[in-house]
Amino acid sequence: MFIKLLAGFVAVVLVVAYVTPLVFKMKDVPLAIVILIGLVAMLVDLWHSLGKSED
Q1: Burial tier of 23 (Cβ tally within 10 Å: 0-12, 13-18, 19+)
Q2: Alpha-carbon gap, residue 41 to 38, rounded angstroms
Q3: Which of 17, 30, 46, 50 could form a cystine bridge with 8, CB 3.0-4.6 A?
Q4: pLDDT confidence bin for 55, thresholds 50/70/90
Q5: pLDDT score for 54
């Protein structure tokens, strides 16, 4: 479970680091909203995958 949590955290950090400069450079609010929705979906998926038992 620790590996899943660590991998999820690294993935979120990498996605944020990748898209943040684009949003700030373009100053596009709808793009920022879409990216935030994607991040929330990513975090919900991580939460669900941590709740599952490993076979």
Answers
A1: middle
A2: 5
A3: 46
A4: low
A5: 65
